[in-house]
Each structure stands twice: as C-alpha cells, then as structure tokens.
Amino acid sequence: MTDAVAVVGERHSLPIVRELLYVNRRFSEIADAVGLSRTLLSTRLRRLETAGVVERRRYSEHPPRDE
C-alpha cells in the first residue's frame, strides 16, 4: 500500500487518477484532459498499474485495445 500512496502522490499521477474517476478510461481521453506528453502519460499509467492503483482492461480484441 505504501508504494501506491507514493505513486499517487507524484506530481503528474493525481490528475491522471482524477480523470479515471471522471470516467475518462481511454488513453486519448486522459491525454487530452491532463495535457501531458504521451510518453510521460504512458510511463505514469504503467507505474500506477504496477502499484495496483489502476487496472488495465481489454475492450477490443481486433485491434487489441485496453482501457
């Protein structure tokens, strides 16, 4: 749990979590809302997923897409 708190407390992570709570689930929606570079957003989302704060879910098989 401590890792999750540390990750959420990072400067760019909290706005991402906020957008997820606002029901913006797709990468492009989150990117538009928080204004981060796609590289930084991708890195932060992976860290949040690794810490167990967010969960990736597949919504399309062809092409493979996650939310």
Please, could you describe this protein's structure?
- The protein is built from four helices and two strands, in the order H-H-H-H-E-E.
- With 67 residues, it is mainly alpha-helical.
- The protein has a two-stranded antiparallel ribbon with strand order 1-2.
- The longest helix is centred in the middle third of the chain and has 13 residues, at 38-50.
- The two termini are 23 Å apart.
In short:
This protein is mainly α and 67 residues long. It has four helices and two strands. The longest helix has 13 residues.
Q: What strand line-up does the widest sheet have?
A: 1-2
State the helical fraction.
55-70%
Order of helices and strands: HHHHEE
Secondary structure tally: strands: 2
Model regions low in confidence, pLDDT < 50 over at least 5 residues = none
Task: Determine Rg (CA atoms, Å).
Answer: 12 Å
Characterize the biggest β-sheet: 2 strands, antiparallel
Count of alpha and pi helical runs: 4
Structural class: mainly alpha
Q: What is the average per-residue confidence, as pLDDT, rounded to a whole number? A: 87
Q: How far apart, in Å, are the first and last alpha carbons?
A: 23 Å
